[in-house]
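seq as requested:
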Amino acid sequence: MSSGSSSSPPSFPVGTPEHFRWLQGIVKAVLVLNLLDALFTLLWVRSGLAREANPLIDQLVNENAVGFVLFKVGVVGLGSWLLWRRRQRPIAVIAIVAAFLVYYLVLLYHLQYASGLVRQLLGIG
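struct tokens:
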């Protein structure tokens, strides 16, 4: 054991250009998933099959479809932009991945709901 050399654990590069390309793809996916959520929400609410779960924008989705989509896209877009600007911080990366997971699960819920409707229409389920 030598007293002159310190044995530190190996460091791995964090925030490489490749990491940020992946993260940028995740941010883009969040924006697309958010738009799909807005469109599915309009479809279900306007056809009388569901209600908007968020009471803050329930009235907007019922009275102004374009305003609802613009508001939803704008808020999530702004949040994504702010997180992207702070992408060097671990908490921002965690928040981006969490947003992706939430919107991915919401999309799966919409698809499950649509699948159930199709099965009903076809008399399968």
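The mean pLDDT is 90.
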